[in-house]
Design brief:
The protein is α+β, with helices and mostly antiparallel strands. It is built from 23 helices and 24 strands. It has a 6-stranded mixed sheet with strand order 9-6-2-1-11-22, with helices on one face. A 6-stranded antiparallel sheet has the order 16-17-18-19-15-20, with no helix packed on it. The N terminus is likely disordered.
């Protein structure tokens, strides 16, 4: 954690609400905090410096883990490493508040391994808030946004209702930087009211409404407005987006019940433990943690139980009372890869059990998260359902499971920069774009915040390629395919996954992040030192010979490990195990890496070739009607994006390229 901060003494900026902000972020979830942090980082280093506002309904809930109290996983862990390499918050926050760390898929190749950590969810949100409070050019405003001000296709500002106000982090909380499980840094209500509805001027808005746009929560036949239990709903934004011509969809997600720890019989349930030597997500963690201590918080284990035939019979008997099956929910579909227990029983009718992981939500509360039985069944069904599971015969439910449906923007209307194609300066990010998961939201938020800040200063917007980052794969998928269910990242979605490993995120992204203004001096100095050590190790692998073979050749043997290689490194043997393992991975997969790199080079030209926004696909002579319709709907920004659209074939791409070239050669004004 950074050193304690006294906002009044250190902050060189005024704390009052201003009439204009360079960037305004709407929403304080995982997309919103990364967007605000990224924009503030870029604008703090700009000349002259700029300012960012984060508008959220309840500042005390900034960084809240709405569902699973965990970060990372397969492909998701790689994205957290990428967020960290680009100077984001998520890696630092989970390292400071993780209570069980585990590297997944260690029995498989390095391309598909992914770090994951269970979090103390209250400590996590508090940590995120303390980190945000150290951004001197970031104002946090409590309130909702009534409307967006758009003039001539360009975003000009937002309208805040009466009663919205700026909040300042509690200095007492900030002073206790070592108390990672302390109370929220921001208060729940603003100490100052703005008065009448206020217009804040800006050139860039990052819209991260999460599950709150026209949101409804369902538990059985019971329905209530809200995107999360105990919180409100954003109604005006949906109407504004429709007025601006956006096509909206409706999605659904859900969450499982939470059980009281003391009501569970843990004695006969199999344990799930973390790694004996945990791997941090952030490259800065070894430098920032007190005394280099990691993990910071006490480590726990989870336990495994399961559903059974009796539970499945109970679910089938009550499907007519489940909102998704009764027609009560308007949303098209829920998450395919994190389905409700009702969906599992229907889709996998041949199975008589499903694993359920009992995961503590915090070290300081008795809440246990039931990972595997997300449900919207009525409360009178949830209780007997839970009590059919081993160890849960006398379990007490603290919070009922529920489903939430919400509005989203069809993502074919955005570019992979996160900016919409019809309104300049509007950057949707997170679940509003049809994704699921904290990590997917955080990656989008970072790109949106970066590009909103660059737009504010007249710089070109940034796109991350599919060969550069999982974040780039996700954004490209979103803008070339219309998801009918919440999008989740998997390693199988990345064709260049051997280049996008968790261990090399710093090499891929920290140098460009520095160029874009995201990476501060501390991170850059740490990377520069690590890069020098990597260069020395790579040289040593080539110049060191054992029994007539180079160390690089020996590292390719199946039985080679960092421990067997390190003794031959002479003066380089003290290098961190993770760095030795990285160079060994490069040696073992050298041929595959070279082939993937060659493929990337061949594709580079189409990824760089832009398509003029003024080009009308229906005016291209010889182009099939299906291809013209698809191109008009998705409006791809590059030939690479066009090539990945369903309904566009190689012949169509040839005609498109010819039309672009003709347009480029045509006299101005013709």
């Amino acid at each position: 954690m950074p050193a304690p901060l006294d906002p009044g003494a250190v902050d060189p900026y005024s704390r009052r609400v201003r009439e204009r902000y360079d960037v305004i972020v709407i929403g304080g979830g995982h997309a919103g905090v990364e967007a605000a942090w990224a924009a503030a980082s870029v604008l703090r280093r700009a000349d002259p410096p700029g300012r960012v506002a984060l508008v959220t309904m309840d500042p005390a809930r900034i960084g809240t883990m709405s569902c699973n109290p965990a970060v990372g996983g397969l492909a998701k862990g790689q994205m957290v490493r990428e967020i960290d390499a680009l100077g984001g918050l998520m890696g630092l926050a989970i390292d400071a508040t993780g209570i069980m760390f585990k590297m997944l898929n260690t029995s498989k190749g390095p391309a598909v391994r992914g770090p994951r950590a269970q979090a103390d969810k209250y400590a996590y949100a508090a940590c995120v808030q303390r980190l945000l409070a150290h951004a001197p050019n970031l104002d946090v405003i409590a309130g909702t946004v009534d409307d967006l001000v758009v003039e001539d296709g360009r975003l000009r500002g937002i309208i805040l209702p009466a009663g919205a106000g700026i909040v300042t982090a509690d200095p007492d909380v900030l002073a206790r930087a070592d108390d990672v499980a302390g109370r929220p840094a921001y208060p729940s209500s603003p100490p100052v009211a703005l008065g009448a509805p206020t217009r804040l001027r800006t050139g860039g808005v990052v819209l991260t409404t999460g599950t709150f746009m026209r949101a409804l929560m369902h538990t059985g036949e019971s329905t209530a407005p809200g995107g999360r239990v105990g919180e409100g709903v954003a109604t005006g934004i949906s109407a504004t987006l429709r007025r601006l011509g956006f096509e909206l969809g409706r999605l659904k997600t859900g969450t499982p019940p939470r059980l009281a720890r003391e009501s569970i019989d843990w004695s006969d349930l199999p344990a799930q433990s973390g790694d004996a030597v945990p791997t941090p997500f952030s490259d800065l963690t070894p430098l920032r943690m007190p005394g280099g201590r990691f993990p910071v918080m006490a480590q726990i284990e989870c336990r495994v139980t399961s559903t059974n035939a009796a539970a499945h019979d109970l679910i089938r008997a009550n499907l007519h009372r489940a909102p998704m099956y009764s027609g009560q929910i308007e949303a098209e579909s829920g998450p395919r890869y994190c389905p409700s227990i009702e969906d599992k029983v229907v889709r996998f009718a041949d199975r008589d059990s499903h694993h359920v992981f009992l995961e503590p939500e915090s070290l300081r509360t008795n809440e246990i998260y039931c990972n595997g039985i997300s449900t919207s069944l009525p409360a009178d069904v949830q209780m007997p359902l839970v009590r059919t599971m081993p160890g849960c015969g006398r379990a007490e439910i603290l919070k009922w499971g529920y489903a939430v449906e919400y509005d989203m923007i069809r993502p074919h209307q955005i570019d992979s920069t996160c900016m919409t194609k019809t309104v300049i300066g509007l950057f949707p990010a997170g679940q509003i774009n049809g994704t699921s998961g904290y990590e997917e939201a955080g990656g989008q938020g970072l790109v949106a915040g970066l590009n909103a800040a660059r737009l504010a200063r007249g710089a070109d917007l940034v796109r991350l390629g599919r060969d550069v980052a999982y974040i780039g794969v996700m954004l490209d998928d979103l803008v070339t395919k219309t998801p009918r269910e919440p999008y989740r990242m998997f390693t199988s979605r990345a064709e260049h996954r051997l280049l996008l490993r968790a261990d090399n995120a710093d090499e891929r992204l920290t140098p460009p992040g520095r160029e874009w203004g995201l990476v501060d001096d501390e991170r850059w100095d740490a990377w520069s030192e690590r890069r020098a050590r990597l260069d020395a190790l790579r040289e040593a692998f080539d110049r060191t010979f054992v029994g007539g073979k180079s160390l690089r050749e020996l590292a390719r043997r199946p039985d080679a490990t960092p421990e067997t290689v390190a003794p031959h490194l002479n003066g380089d043997g003290a290098a961190a195990r993770s760095l030795v393992e990285r160079v060994m991975t490069e040696a073992k997969y050298d041929g595959y890496i070279r082939r993937q790199a060659a493929t990337v080079r061949r594709q580079a030209e189409s990824e760089r070739q832009t398509i003029p926004e003024s080009l009308d696909p229906h005016a291209i002579r010889g182009l099939r009607r299906e291809a013209a319709d698809v191109l008009a709907r998705f409006r791809p920004r590059t030939m690479g994006q066009a090539s990945r659209l369903a309904g566009v074939n190689p012949a169509d791409l040839t005609l498109l390229a010819i039309a672009i070239e003709r347009g480029r050669r045509a006299p101005a004004g013709s």
